[in-house]
Design goal:
The complex is a heterodimer.
Chain A (H helix, E strand, L loop, with lengths): L3 H9 L3 H23 L3 H16 L10 H27 L2 H8 L11 H11 L2 H12 L4 H8 L3 H38 L1
Helix pairs in contact in A: 1-2, 2-3, 2-4, 2-7, 3-4, 4-8, 6-9, 7-9, 8-9
Chain B lengths: L2 H12 L4 H13 L1 H18 L10 H50 L4 H5 L7 H5 L1 H7 L1
Helix pairs in contact in B: 1-2, 1-3
Chain lengths: 194, 140
């Protein structure tokens, strides 16, 4: 199995097929990151493509201090945060505040959301970008606290506090939707995971 | 349920607690039913988060990335070509202007004709000639 470092070296020397292998290798992780941050759609696809293009352009500067995965994830997170800022500016410019509120809150009516995954994804989309990024990296990408701290460039204590606050917010959003019965059913499975 | 116990509970999911903190949390969990319920709810939410699966990008994502890279390379070459044309244009334009001015000055100095006709090597017409249509054909 060819390592990331070998693929990067080959890409730097003009072997485009090596870079394509690198893209295929990291594609699913970057997809989880940008889709988690931006939701499914064209924005996520664009951010994903831009992530790899930026990496290609800056490959010579990559010194291998962090892993390729961490490095690319950092680019993906930054691009996603920029996309969220653009989206917010766009919404503030073109929609009235009361319409924005109605777009952001899915409410507790579960009839529209058969799939619980969809509900949880909607809930993540309601978090502010700082909280969303730690939730995505911790749960969707399964990074350790130290890795998240490296990717976001913040102290581990801040990661922990953002995680705690994000979970509190998610609990407020999700509890009325998931319901008490679900809590009781989920506890046994959850105990094995956490 | 105290705030400290709740903070310890949240911390316990993602970081190692010291033996003292662990003991404090265990005691708080034994004593507080609301803290136990809180723990159950948080565990459920974490379970839901762990089970989110994304379908990923549309098929042939890597091909699309490579094609974007290729087109940005082509764009770079295109930009480079026009940038070099732009860079070359200014010195070339200045040189040609100076050459033309030089030739015109040379003509003016060397010629014994009037200044304008010497600058632009052409016949200077009188008013009668200018009004005579046959003279136009002659000039052409």
């Amino acid at each position: 199995m060819v390592s990331d470092a070998q693929l990067i070296q080959a890409s730097i020397h003009g072997d485009e097929s090596a870079f394509k292998i690198l893209v295929q290798k990291h594609e699913s992780r970057i997809a989880a990151t940008v889709i988690g941050m931006l939701g499914p759609g064209q924005d996520a696809e664009d951010a994903g493509q831009e992530t790899f293009i930026r990496f290609y352009e800056n490959m010579k500067q990559f010194q291998g201090k962090s892993s390729v995965s961490t490095y690319i994830t950092r680019i993906a997170i930054n691009l996603s945060l920029n996309a969220l800022k653009r989206r917010k500016r766009h919404r503030n410019r073109y929609y009235k505040p009361d319409y924005i509120e109605s777009m952001e809150i899915p409410g507790s009516d579960t009839s529209e959301y058969d799939d619980q995954q969809e509900i949880v994804q909607q809930a993540i989309q309601q978090l502010n970008p700082d909280f969303r990024s730690v939730i995505v990296l911790r749960f969707l990408r399964e990074h350790s606290i130290k890795e998240i701290s490296d990717i976001l460039g913040i102290p581990q204590g801040t990661v922990l506090s953002r995680l705690a606050r994000a979970q509190k917010k998610l609990k407020v959003i999700l509890n009325p939707i998931l319901g008490e019965n679900d809590v009781k059913q989920g506890v046994q499975t959850a105990a094995q995971i956490v | 349920m105290s705030n400290k116990a709740y903070r310890l509970l949240l911390k316990s999911f993602d970081a190692d607690l010291s033996p003292k903190e662990k003991k404090q949390l265990d005691t708080a969990l034994q004593e507080s039913k609301s803290l136990r319920l809180e723990k159950e709810q948080l565990m459920l939410i974490r379970q839901k988060l762990n089970h989110i699966s994304h379908p990923g990008f549309r098929p042939y994502f890597a091909d699309r990335v490579m094609s974007q890279i290729q087109s940005s390379k082509n764009q770079y070459r295109y930009d480079l070509f026009f940038e070099s044309l732009k860079t070359a244009f200014r010195p070339l334009a200045i040189s040609v202007t100076l050459l033309i001015l030089g030739l015109m000055s040379y003509n003016a100095i060397q010629s014994d004709r009037s200044f304008l006709s010497a600058l632009l090597p052409m016949e200077e017409a009188t008013l009668e000639q200018a009004l005579d249509p046959s003279w136009i054909y002659f000039v052409e």
